[in-house]
Write a structure and sequence with these properties.
454 residues; 3 domains; four-stranded antiparallel beta sheet; 19 helices
Length: 454
């Protein structure tokens, strides 16, 4: 198919199209693909910010935009060439979700399609986007979404761009009154949060606004985190405030007797391990990380050795379902279990399109096995923190309840006194904590503190 030479393709929009292709075809993560693509195209400053919003915003709003495009195209979207559909989604986001003039959004998208696909495909894109530009986002949602009175969850699935099953699962966790606010918060790009690792850096060294709940965090107004000296040196890092609070809650929980052996059972990629190791060093304790996958184990070693200082004892590449520790041997254990990630959709927007109810069932089985194994390793008088970056009840309350029922030597403790600055965070189990993006501007982290009685 011929690709005639025409007007120069805008490099920012070409870069955004590459990001969408990598996310769709290679299972890439938007936030991980973006830096490489920006570097390849030599885009910085305002151009880089434009690409970031264009690509990430398009991924977030994919369900909404697909519903709009389906109303403007006379054949199923699955029959539209993938490169053309990606470009149409980018154009639709510019028209409905960004302050890009309609003529610029349409013409640059048409140029992109002509250059990447064909002249005829460019004409098709022009016709479709002109139809899209006839209404604003609110009017299109009224047109293509189910009535909220007849099908409230179906309406929200289109209006806030989440799969229907995810809307149903989140509704059970947060309640109907807050569901719309939670889904809307998932579509707000999070600001970058940094953490100063204690004993290695201070919060005063970091630019930005102090976080409200973590004494070690700041939120950046903009700029490249890697340009901050403490980050470049590994003494500080990028870490959501919710993840910081997970590490702080475990470190604050009292233990009886010895407090020397700390374990992070699912340590990759190493953010929480780094903070825990720094906290351990201040007490003369040491943290060991356990990570199944080789590349993630290397990330843990790199992050925690620079950020945790003397408090990092190393990383063991092993399967945490058969942890390489004796019974009742660890004083403190963090189990940040593999989960659906449905509490981190602000940062990982593509996760909503990749996860399935089948994934949930498999992960729940793994979470139960991991938590039971963590309970075996925990010594009486020690502290075990179970955490997920998902608020879905099957991964939180139901996992903990099932393991407690099978293991009477474990009991649930109250983690809330160890996060006294965090308001309105009662979790689904007595004494547990649930953070929310719409309440706390963090990922939706779940925390439960367990003890071993014998």
């Amino acid at each position: 198919m011929s690709r005639p030479r025409g007007r120069r393709v805008d490099p920012a929009r070409a870069a955004a199209l590459e990001v969408l292709r990598a996310v769709r075809a290679e299972d890439g993560y938007t936030n991980l693909v973006l830096p490489a693509v920006l570097s390849q195209h030599g885009l910085t400053g305002r151009d880089a910010a434009f690409v970031t919003e264009l690509a990430a915003g398009t991924v977030r709003r994919q369900a909404t935009y697909d519903a709009v495009l389906a109303a403007c195209i006379d054949r199923p979207l699955r029959k539209v060439e993938t490169a053309v559909l990606d470009a149409l989604r980018l154009g639709t986001h510019q028209l409905l979700g960004m302050r890009v003039p309609a003529h610029a959004a349409i013409s640059t998208t048409v140029d992109l399609v002509r250059a990447k696909v064909s002249q005829g495909a460019g004409g098709f894109a022009n016709a479709v986007l002109r139809k899209v530009s006839a209404r604003d986002l609110a009017a299109w949602i009224d047109e293509v979404a189910p009535s909220s009175d007849a099908d409230a969850h179906g309406h929200l699935a289109v209006a806030e761009s989440h799969p229907r099953w995810v809307v149903d699962a989140l509704a059970s966790a947060v309640g109907e009154d807050e569901l719309a606010a939670l889904l809307a918060a998932d579509n707000v790009p999070p600001r970058v949060t940094l953490v100063a690792r204690p004993g290695r850096a201070t919060r005063d060294e970091l630019p930005g606004t102090p976080t409200p709940y973590s004494p070690y965090g700041v939120t950046l107004e903009g700029g490249d985190p890697a340009a901050v000296p403490a980050v470049a040196e590994g003494r500080a890092g990028v870490q959501d405030e919710g993840s910081q609070l997970v590490a702080l809650a475990l470190a604050a929980a009292p233990v009886e007797g010895r407090d020397e052996r700390w374990v992070d059972l699912c340590a990759g990629p190493g953010g929480k391990a780094s903070l825990l190791a720094a906290l351990a060093a201040e007490r003369g304790a040491a943290l060991t990380g356990v990570e199944l996958h080789h590349h993630r184990a290397r990330l843990v070693a790199r992050a925690a050795s620079s950020g945790g200082g003397a408090g990092f004892a190393g990383v063991v590449q092993a399967d945490a379902t058969r942890a390489p520790y004796a019974d009742a041997s660890a004083d403190r254990i963090l189990l940040d279990a593999p989960c659906t990630g449905l509490g981190a959709l602000r940062r990982r927007p593509e996760a909503r399109w990749r996860r399935t109810p089948g994934d949930l069932a498999e992960l729940v089985a793994l979470q139960r096995t991991l938590l039971a194994e963590a309970g075996r390793v925990l010594r009486p008088g020690g502290a075990l923190l179970y955490a997920t970056c998902s608020p879905v009840l099957a991964e939180t309350a139901e996992v903990v309840t099932a393991v407690l029922g099978d293991h009477p030597e474990l009991r649930l403790d109250d983690v809330r006194p160890h996060l006294p600055a965090v308001p309105d965070a009662d979790g689904p189990l007595p004494g547990s904590v649930q953070l929310w993006p719409h309440r706390h501007a963090t990922d939706a982290m779940f925390l439960a503190l367990l003890r071993r009685t014998s």
